[in-house]
Design brief:
The chain is mainly alpha-helical and 167 residues long. It has one domain. The chain has helices spanning 3-60, 69-81, 84-95, 97-105, 111-136, 139-145, 159-166. Helix 1 packs across helix 2 (69-81), helix 1 packs antiparallel against helix 5 and helix 4 (97-105) packs antiparallel against helix 5 (111-136). The protein is elongated, with a radius of gyration of 24 Å.
């Protein structure tokens, strides 16, 4: 056996295996991040629909059920890409669904108290939408999402968020 040819072959094979391993890990990580980003997008749109339902309930007294199926299904992916403080903001919006149900079902709740509780629920939804907008979308996509879809131009972002995205 010729050691002059065997040793470079073994070293080359080892380097090749390590190289392919690193490429595989890199590709797998990118795929995982893409899946997590897509999960955040799905939850963003579910949360945006919930925000609109809360606004309608606050302004017109028409309560429709809030959805959480995407959130429940995709929470593990979200937990890996969101910082703990951001995850807490998102979970708070969904925890507020209990308050929404109470406001919808309690006929003895005074109107000012109902409106104030719905305002707080709406604020939690806007905060969570801001977190997901930063995580799931590019700055250009986030700006496009802030364009009002309704004639009244109801805001889904705080004024500070809008200023930051427009600059």
């Amino acid at each position: 056996m010729d050691v002059d040819r065997f040793l470079p072959g073994v070293i080359g094979a080892f380097v090749g295996v390590i190289g392919w391993l690193l490429v595989g890990v890199y590709i797998q990580r990118r795929q995982f991040l893409r899946q997590a980003r897509n999960a955040a997008r799905a939850v963003y749109f579910e949360l945006d629909v919930n925000r609109m339902n809360v606004e309608v309930a606050r302004d017109y007294g028409s309560f429709t059920p809030l959805n959480r199926s995407s959130f429940d299904r995709l929470l593990p992916e979200l937990a890996t890409v969101l910082a703990p403080a951001d995850l807490r903001r998102l979970v708070s919006a969904y925890m507020a669904h209990a308050g929404y149900q109470q406001a919808a079902s309690d006929p003895e709740l005074p109107a000012p108290v109902r409106r104030e509780s719905l305002d707080a629920i709406l604020a939690a939804h806007r905060d969570a939408l801001g977190v997901l907008r930063r995580t799931a979308f590019t700055p250009g996509e986030a700006r496009a999402l802030l364009e009002p879809l309704t004639p009244t131009g109801s805001a889904i972002a705080t004024d500070a968020e809008e200023r930051a995205l427009r600059t």
